[in-house]
Amino acid sequence: MTNIATPPNSHVEPVQSPQNVIKALSIDNLIFGLDNDQLKILLVKQTDPMHQGKWALPGGWIRYDENLRDAAYRLLEELTGVKQLYLEQLKTFGRVDRFPTERVVTIAYYALVSAEHYSLVAGQSAADVSWQSVNNLPELIYDHAEIIDYGMKFLRHQVCHQPIGFNLLPEKFTLLQLQALYEAILNTKLDKPNFRRKIMKMDLLTPCNEKQQGVPHRAANLYRFDADAYKQLTESGFSFEI
Length: 242
Prior knowledge:
Elements: E1 21-35, E2 38-46, E3 55-56, E4 59-63, H1 68-80, E5 88-93, E6 105-114, E7 126-133, H2 144-161, H3 175-186, H4 192-201, E8 205-211, E9 221-225, H5 227-235
Parallel strand pairs: 1-6
Antiparallel strand pairs: 1-2, 1-4, 2-3, 2-7, 5-6, 8-9
């Protein structure tokens, strides 16, 4: 990951942008974080006069001398302090009127993480940075609400067809914890017996032969996600489906 110490330049201030950036092309990062069984997204509060007090996805201009993914990592770290996560390219957004006064196309990257694992530090061009509930978003600049809406639909499709949600759980987890994770991402209440029956039928969980410790309720059995079993099953045509 490129680590450049120069101050970040937000794409909300095109007139003041430096000469070594591609002014018609920007990056926006969608970092989804699970926080106490709630799905949130990482946002930064703007400092420029035109959008002061409004929130935005962490992003900005791409420099001529850096790769797209390097730009995404650099901007994310400069604006929020978040680093050492893996970003996937989501989609390019290029509606003609998405940016005022000039044409700007933005490339969106995304990640799904445990919010508690990251310390947030607002960068020089951010008044604040925080995790915000995807179900109660503040006022956003430009088309960032539209980008988040697309990202949410994509994420919910992904977790139903790939076991990416297991990355957010501890190594040993209960079926109730697993269900709570899916309910948070899908924003819906799942039928407990049907969910458990469907999960156990996949043969992707290995019993730990242990129970929860130090809980005020009846201790539940602990399980592990078997990545090797998933790999073997997919090679034989298995389809993950929630």
